[in-house]
Write a structure and sequence with these properties.
Layout: E1 2-9, H1 10-21, H2 34-42, E2 49-60, H3 67-81, E3 86-92, H4 107-121, E4 126-130, H5 137-143, E5 149-155, H6 165-172, E6 179-182, H7 184-189
Parallel strand pairs: 1-2, 1-4, 2-3, 4-5, 5-6
Length: about 200
């Protein structure tokens, strides 16, 4: 049976999905579950397979500067940490006085490095990347040079929404990477029900 590992750029997955499907709600009310997202992705595949790992990358808030976000984050961190399939990497968010919201720093770099190393290790038959961050595209180019199969995932509104920048760049560079489309129903079905979300 084909063993699948899913790589999630969590903030990108969450925020793009929120902007596409949940603009009427505040962002903190729609947090997707990494496990449910990964399961939704592999459910789209036609080949028989198993979810072997979920690699999660996310910024972590500073408790003194953002206590409410920290409370939500720590609850998710504890809960998701109990799932043996989830391998999470958390990097501190960067706060600046001139910026309204904190910014992730180094998340795309860490994800990119790990994606390539995992592809080179051949521990899994297929890797699926869910991120629209174009900074990850060089890692995609390196990963496809290995014999580990690589696929993408992206949100879609079913009306011509372009998916994500990595999928666009792949097509532009003639990399034939299958992109699994997840839709509005998937977004709401994959919500972390523990958060008291808008759904």
């Amino acid at each position: 049976m084909e063993r699948i590992a899913v790589f999630l750029d969590y903030s990108n997955v969450h925020l793009v999905g929120h902007e596409l499907f949940a603009r009427d709600f505040q962002k903190w009310t729609t947090h997707v579950s990494p496990r449910r997202i990964a399961e939704a992705i592999i459910s789209k595949r036609t080949q028989e397979c198993e979810l072997a790992a979920v690699f999660l990358y996310r910024g972590s808030p500073e408790r003194f500067l953002d206590p409410e976000a920290t409370k939500i984050f720590r609850d998710e961190q504890r809960r998701w940490g109990n799932d043996d399939l989830i391998h999470a990497t958390y990097l501190p968010l960067h706060y600046a006085s001139y910026r309204v919201t904190p910014k992730e720093a180094g998340v795309d770099v860490r994800l990119s490095l790990d994606l390539v190393r995992t592809a080179e290790s051949h521990r899994y038959d297929t890797l699926i990347l869910f991120s629209g961050d174009s900074d990850c595209f060089p890692a995609v180019q390196d990963a496809v040079k290995t014999t580990t199969h690589l696929e993408l995932a992206a949100w879609s509104d079913g009306k011509g929404y372009p998916g994500n920048r990595i999928a666009q760049q792949s097509a532009k560079h003639r990399l034939r990477l299958w992109t699994h489309s997840l839709y509005e129903d998937d977004f709401w079905d994959c919500q972390d029900k523990q958060n008291g979300i808008a759904a």
